[in-house]
Write the structure tokens for this entry.
Amino acid sequence: MFEWLFKYPAAVFSKGEFVLLSAWPAWVLAGAILAAGAALAWHVLRTRAPLEGWRRAAVWLMQAGALALILVLLWRPALSVATLRPQQNIVAVMVDDSRSMGLAENGETRLQQALKALDGGLAAELRKKFQVRLYRFGKDAERVDTTTRLSGTQSASRIGESLKQVLADASGLPLGAVVLLSDGADNSGGIDRETTAQIRQRRIPVHTAGFGKERLERDIELAEAAVPARTLAGSRLSAEVTLRQFGYSQRRTRIRIKDGERVLASREVTLKADGAPQTETVAFQAGAGGAHTLQVAVDALDGEENTANNALTRLISVDSAKPRVLYIEGEPRWEFKFIRRAIEEDTGVELVTMLRTTQNQIYRQGISAPAELEQGFPSRPEELFAYQGLIVGDVEVSYFTPAQREMIREFANRRGGGVLFLAGRAGLSGGGYQNSPLAEMLPVRLADSKSTFHREEAAVRLTPMGSLSLLCRLEEDQEQNAARWKKMPLLADYQETGELKPGAVALLEVAPAGRRPGPLLAIENYGRGRTFLFASSGSWRWQMLQPLEDKTHEIFWQQMLRWLVAGTPGQVAATTPKPVLSDESEAVIRAEVRNKAFEAVPDARVEARIVGPDGQAAGLELTPDPQEQGVYTARWTADRPGSFLAEIVARAGEEEIGRDVVMFRREDGVAESFRTVQNRELLEKLAEQTGGRYYRPGTLAKLPQEISYSEAGITTRETRDLWDMPAVFLLLIALRGGEWVLRRKWGVV
Amino acid sequence: MGLRGWAAAMLIATVGIASLFAFQQRRFRFFQDEEDNPAPIPADAHEKTEFVFARLRYLPGPYARRYYSSWPTDYPKADRQFLQGVRRLTRIHARSMEEVVDLDSDEIFKWPWIYAVETGHWSLTDPQASRLREYLLKGGFLMTDDFHGTYEWEVFMESMQKVFPDRPVEEIDSADPIFHVLYDLSERVQVPGIQYFYSGRPWERDGVEPHWRGIYDDKRRVMVAICYNQDNGDAWEWADHPRYPEKYASQAYRVGINYIIYAMTH
């Protein structure tokens, strides 16, 4: 229809450039149209026809439109379009040979459908105009002479990487276009910008043809399972599990998290609407220290077409070292005692406290040596930064020297520690924090008033964000948890804090009778670390006013302190961007090395000892990253599937600065079982970004004709007249005929 | 304004002042009829503070004289005078006036420190003992004082064993943090009551040896601090008396303060 109306395929219009072939310049045309329009207006206004208002305007519009169209046609409108010269260009035909192409639908595999289209005429039509190079691709692209070598057995699809290889293979040749036949089930994380930019730079259109169902009839896929890479021994963690299902809406299934054969947690879920991503949180205990390989799985339901996409593997490094938290308190308070008691029951965190009992006396508890904190609050970064977390209680800000205040700020910003500020008559605004550099690190904008601390009972409320956070999770089940918070005894006191800062999150609110609720527990990231605010010193009532066996207070404060220190890095912090290598072998190891004051160390000797799945160890040296001071990187080839553990040690001369471990895992042939439906979005986007088109199997017949319009390869510029398009004549008739119909209707013919 | 108007305004003002007064009175439980040694109500008695000295009101023991009640011994002068010391010597934000509490309601759980005097004459019912046990195991602290000799010990223990039938009473070691949390109290003397004025003896009945005993929780924290054969309450009460020896008053203050700070830190 389009071609009948407009004479040429849509590709001509999308690729072509509009030109006027008349020798007269375009501005004369514009002037002529304006003049004709003005003359018609004068004529319409002068005529004594019984037409009023908008009717005159409508008549003028249609007459002027027709005249303008005729004038444009007189200037010979045309399209200038680049076309590939016949038999002088190459077209690369890439056929996806990955295992997902082997999935059968309606009695034929996707690969068979693609080959049927190719051998059924597409290849022959292309060969009439171009030299055709055939490639098969999976993990990599490989040139083949015949389609018989395609089997649909490769363990991965890496479309971007394969495209790069094809472009490199044809780098010195007149490559006019790429035709990519695939289901789009890429499992390398998509096509990166670099590849897209490279294709665009060479102006090579990639035409994509999508095969496979865009949705399965009956399938549950575990799309993602986000688990923290590291944690403290015995911590409670959460896995954010994202499911997508077709055909099982409202059915119930169960998500399980296993460490080997041991089930750590399981949760029954009701499946939501077909195709809609559904994220569920499953809480579990991290267990003892060491490297753990977790399997996150969803139970298969009857008749599932693909059960290989029901489980994912995740790695978690559980640190058995006991982080230390320093708590400074300005005066004896019940909150201090009860926080101490709660943490005494936690084997994972060590609490060191210093309490000002009198003007001249500091009482220390939890110290590891008599000299610890003997001189009061640390005055050197090396001393303060030895702790992983810091709690600032009811201490006026003037108690700290300016250097100590800066150190507290840097404790979060540079050292990457967690700092918790507690309420009190000398805490927060009551202690002048709003006018100090420490105000910057608080998650709220402190009120500029001294009388913000109220010894009045106040209710606590769980916010929507708090109901999702594990920090406030007293019960595994979200609804039961919310119900438990509603029954919480009143706090003994509260402090007005001011509004949340952008980026900060309130997990709990305090709701005093007759007053507006305000943040009770607020958190935010600050620099490399985190800051917390707890705007009450009366949570001890949760311990004293609930039954003896109730562990609310203990659980809450244990979780609070674990959160405070959970992300705190050591002097050596090792990471890897891809903990799970899907059908890849190259792992990147990155280590940040800092001294005791947590300043970057640029001249350290950093070595990794990597233990593979067979228990064999290998050494590797990390080299400084020229872009970032104190950062060292190395690449390592994981030569076999399985889990690898890298221990990184940094030294300055002979002295060890620190060490850390990082885990990664190579998985072959697993990713291909995921996202098995056609990823039409990816194929369409690839075509759109490169100037190509997306085709369904039914429309592939048009491709040989449309593919000619390309600016890559050896081209010739052709001019296509537009004046004789049927659409032009139809428009002219419509304008004149429309006027006649309207005049008839208005009785003014 | 006419006569009627004035009368109405006066009435409203009177009712208002009376209501305010009643409200202020209601914030404390007054036991003026039972006061042992009256003392003026401090000007800042209504201040809301972190620490409140809670005095335990208990039932008299089985062999107590009729109408005799021992809980208010030295009350309220001892409490208020001791609190002046607590406020002056430490950073504890303490109320200047005591709070009288009992074990008949869950209100006790809002006061994590309680002081009980003359517990050689107390008697706890089973529900009271049960509530006290729960209170102590949750983190509350009890200081008992001013009971002497074998007989009063037996009376004390009769109720205490209802609270903790399975936990022993132990001598608190001098190295225990409770004697060092603020003041170093390795060396201690027997603190006598007011009877020392007349008798010249620091002991009463057959309670010659002073004891600082305690009941511990599972983590070896003192829950109940028992000042046996000594009278710290009298020392607080009579610290301002020229004849009461300073060294006894001083120790009583130090022991009391150490116990409070211990209760707020352990």
About this structure: Chain B touches chain A through 28 residues (CB under 8 Å).
